[in-house]
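User: structure tokens for this one?
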Amino acid sequence: VVTREQSENWKFPVVIKPYRNGRDLADIPRDAFIIDFFGLSEAEARNRFPGPFQHAFEHVKPERDLNNRPARRDRWWLFGEARATFRPALEGLPRFIATVKTAKHRFFQFLDGEVIPDSKLIAFAFSDAFALGVLSSRAHLAWCQASGSVLEDRPTYVIRSCFDPFPFPAATEAQQQVIRDLAERLDAHRKGAQDRGVTLTQMYNLLDKLRAGEAFTAKERELHGAAQTEILRQLHDELDGAVAQAYGWPADLPEPELLERLVALNRERAAEEARGLVRWLRPGYQAPAAAPAAAPLLTGEETPAEAPAGPAPEPRPWPKDLKDQLAALRDLLLASDRLWTLETLAAAFKSRGRYRESIQAHLDLLTDLGIIHTLRTGPEPRYHRPQTATA
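Assistant:
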């Protein structure tokens, strides 16, 4: 971690990135920066960026030499351990969404795409304010309050239970635009209040008292004026109403009923995915090999062809390298609209060894990564490439 002055002296902005942790988001940002040699070898970092490299050598390497984790010790010049799935997801995004992992108040905000998030932040690779609006809504806040964990007395956001199973509304484009506009206004309003010296923690402490009808102290009244908390409340109320409308539900549902409906919708989505319909949130990134946009969505009645059309393809050699095996299976599945079984896939390759067990393991991995879909109706699983998905 380095100061602005150090970063300006080195004049290497490409490897000096803004750095934010939980306190930076909730309170006053430290204006801290990080040396980030991601993608560079030790020699490349030393030869191209000598000033930052020497700083890291003197201040980072002695500590990393004592680290028990080989990845940290042997690649000491790298900032932490690169998230192989998250870095590519951020490529090309001018901003992304972040929330503090453990905090009294749950709020989501946009950060500049250049920011490196600390491990105490949960980052979401979305630049679309529609996603910010849904995450900031009462529906999502109730869900993550019920499904997250607690550290002492502070709620903790857990990706696997708070985000992964949360069902986004199947909003129309008009509904998405309303949510998008409100989320942009909410984000701009809070950033403006921060510029006036009010932290997000203070804003939401004030909002809680305002909703509860409690009187402000003299100091809180002053902060209330700077934060314009009444406008903050109105923006949240309008956003909650817009998201509820996108779900097709009343805006004033009691929280237990709201959670029951979300759980029921989660089950509906699971059944849809079993039939092959996946409602991608970023289809251009998550399913780039999906069929053209004009193709129909998979429904319960519409499925890919059950059997190959025409003669079976000439069996090709089964690669020896695991990476090449995975690529060969992926390419075969993504190049066809067919439904494949384990047997038909095995027949598409030839090998003297026992390779069918390897094919099954690769299919499971490709399914887990969302690259292919699995239909589990019928006597045996069938595999196919993703079809066009909704936003």
